[in-house]
Design brief:
Blueprint (H helix, E strand, L loop, with lengths): L12 E4 L7 H11 L6 E7 L2 H12 L3 E8 L3 E7 L3
Parallel strand pairs: 1-2
Antiparallel strand pairs: 2-4, 3-4
Helix pairs in contact: 1-2
């Protein structure tokens, strides 16, 4: 996972799951991305470590595109994910 791969894109939906732990962080992400149409972008803030790593891996495995990852402080990351289905 590269941090700050591309310039930020305007998101169609935003969620803050920074206080959630796995597996709930992924469940909430999955529910949010299911509400989007193909090609739309979900932006989320999540915890560093397992949450950012697991969310990224699982969404890529489902065919979605991680278009931007940005560290925010010591404990959080901001991700932008394009829904592809």
């Amino acid at each position: 996972m590269m941090v700050g791969q591309t310039p930020a894109t305007i998101a169609d939906k935003f969620i803050d799951i920074s206080n959630e732990v796995c597996p709930m962080s992924f469940v909430l992400t999955k529910l949010a991305i299911e509400e989007l149409a193909d090609g739309q972008v979900l932006e989320l803030v999540c915890g560093a470590g397992d949450p950012v790593r697991n969310i990224s891996i699982q969404l890529k495995d489902e065919g979605h595109t991680i278009i931007n990852v940005k560290r925010e402080g010591e404990k959080h990351f901001r991700l932008q994910i394009r829904k592809n289905n």
